[in-house]
Amino acid sequence: MATKQTTKKKPAKKKAVKTQKTFLVLGGYGNAGRFISTYLLGDERANVIIAGRHVERAGDLAARLCKKFGEGRAVARYADVMDKSSLLIAMEGVDMVVVAAPVIGQLDTVLSAAVEVGIDYCDILMASPDKYKVLDSYLDDIKTKNMTVITDSGVHPGMAAPLVRMMAGMFATPKRADVAACFRVNWKSLPFNPVSASEFASELRHFNPSFYHNGKWLKAKPTAKPPLYDFGSFFGKQRCMPMMLTEMRVLPKEFPTMKHTGFYISGFNGISDAVVMPICFELIKRFPKAKKLHDMLGKLFFWSLKRFSKPPFGTIIQVNGSGFNQSGKDKHVCLRVYHDDAYALTGASTVACLFEYLDGNFEDLRGEIHLQGNIVNPDGFIQTLQDMGAHAGVVKG
Questions:
Q1: Spatial contact of 39 and 385, defined as CB atoms under 8 Å apart
Q2: pTM for this prediction
Q3: Which residue of 34, 114, 207, 229 could cross-link 180, Cys pair, CB 3.0 to 4.6 Å?
Q4: Phi and psi at residue 80, in whole multiples of 5°?
């Protein structure tokens, strides 16, 4: 992917930027979108247009947000990602489009409209070669229009690299940084989206179980037992599979003393993990181009989540780090972020990045494609997450 792997090691001071910005949130009434729409209005410089095909739902949310944040701060507009003309109309008077709906298949249409209008772009779409390919195809247009383009926003991807950078600052010599995540979602309370199921199948097709060790990125062997990570009193000890996140690739160069790093993710529930996931993996591997089969498998997987997921619910992403302190002694740190709602944390993470955009901190990054995890300033980013209701801090060290 032709992302510019820019990193910011020190928190930038907040700039006194008073210019109003209008954000068009595609899918702004959805599971994560509604939190993005709400959290954005926590900054008086932001106005929100909640857009999608279900304009009634968008209007209901806009009315509630106006009652809370002030008349005119949120409005609803119709937008269909399969209809470029509707996107062009929806983007009138907009500074940035935030893609919070599962639109990988229509991303080309969305980007084409954004480029034509000349507005900035951010997405919370799953990281995949398919997405990166579409983004890269617009790189020349992005340069010509001098657009700010941020991808891989949210939790995973989006939060792993900032946590590692924040943790690394606690050591004189960082040696190891394992980011582990555990998601326990009340799937029964959420509406089923067949497009999300299709995207899940795509993620399985491109799943890369890699981690960094002693100078190399290595793929975990299929027969290797996943490592255990302790998520404390919330979820106890869980086995977590390595999962490559693009934002992690620059970390070994940024921290040359670091000998091991990676992102590790826990399972969902016993049945989904031990029965449904292996079936999905194997069939998608055998039939990589059978889209109808992939859609069916995605539906099967989401059925298993709704049927077998049980409380407690919540989300943890943490970095377990080790290294040496100033005296050369061994030091161990666990920096943890917890929220009781995975979609709220996704929204908070995305908006924490967008607040830096409002501050003007990304103006020198225009004309390129950037990953959220590699441009946010870790300390300010974590503080903003806390301001939005997440619990963050060192739990042992």
A1: no
A2: 0.92
A3: 229
A4: -120, 120
Please report whether residue 167 resides in a domain.
yes
Q: Which of 245, 246, 319, 341 is nearest to 39 (CA)?
A: 341
Q: At what angle do helices 277-286 and 291-308 cross, to 10 degrees?
A: 180
Q: Are the C-beta atoms of 100 and 28 separated by less than 8 Å?
A: yes
- Cβ–Cβ under 8 Å, residues 283 and 293: yes
What is d(CA 207, CA 27) in angstroms, rounded to the nearest whole number?
25
- Determine, yes or no, domain membership for 385: yes
Residue 395 covered by a domain? no
| Same-domain status, 302 and 373 | no
Distance of CA 50 to the CA centre of its chain: 20
**Which tokens belong to 138?**
């617009």
Nearest alpha-carbon partner for 164 in 9, 276, 298: 9
Tally of structural domains, the chain: 2
Looking at the structure, do residues 287 and 213 belong to the same domain, yes or no? yes
Contacts of 371 by beta carbon, 8 Å cutoff, 6+ apart: 3, 5, 150, 151, 152, 157, 161, 246, 247
**Residue 371's CATH number:** 3.40.50.720
